[in-house]
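Supplementary Methods. Inverse-folding protocol.

Structures were first reduced to a discrete structure-token string of length 146. This string, shown here, constituted the complete conditioning input.
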């Protein structure tokens, strides 16, 4: 007979599987390969970046607790951007969110992102867009709106 720990772990796994199923398969692990130079197998045009992009990573700890890290980037045609980071603890029913406004500029094979006050910093990341997937610094994001 299964003990309480294993039952909680099984329930957490089933819960995460149900959450992943709700996204129609778009937000799971990326299919195909991510390797290669930026621009290979996709586009690095500025217009390709415009839209809203989402990346969710699910975690299941050894104690059976379930959590996720969700990052949403919105790149606007006027060069403005917004990053929303949400951390969720499904087991405890807690969530924390942080929003950062920025400006962006597409370069040859990188995108330069400058965070606006109260945040600060300028960063360049390799990127490419392949169909409805943005690879930003080799991390896959699913397009959720144009």
């Amino acid at each position: 007979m299964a003990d309480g720990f294993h039952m909680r772990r099984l329930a957490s796994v089933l819960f995460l599987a149900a959450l992943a199923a709700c996204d129609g398969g778009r937000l799971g692990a990326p299919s195909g390969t991510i390797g290669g130079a930026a621009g290979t197998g996709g586009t690095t045009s500025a217009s390709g970046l415009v839209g809203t992009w989402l990346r969710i990573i699910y975690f299941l700890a050894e104690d059976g607790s379930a959590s996720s890290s969700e990052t949403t980037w919105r790149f606007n045609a006027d060069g403005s951007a917004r990053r929303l980071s949400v951390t969720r603890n499904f087991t405890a029913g807690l969530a924390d969110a942080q929003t950062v406004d920025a400006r962006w500029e597409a370069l040859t094979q990188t995108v330069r992102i400058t965070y606006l006050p109260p945040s600060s910093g300028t960063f360049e990341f390799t990127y490419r867009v392949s169909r409805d997937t943005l690879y930003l610094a080799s991390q896959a994001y699913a397009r959720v709106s144009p």
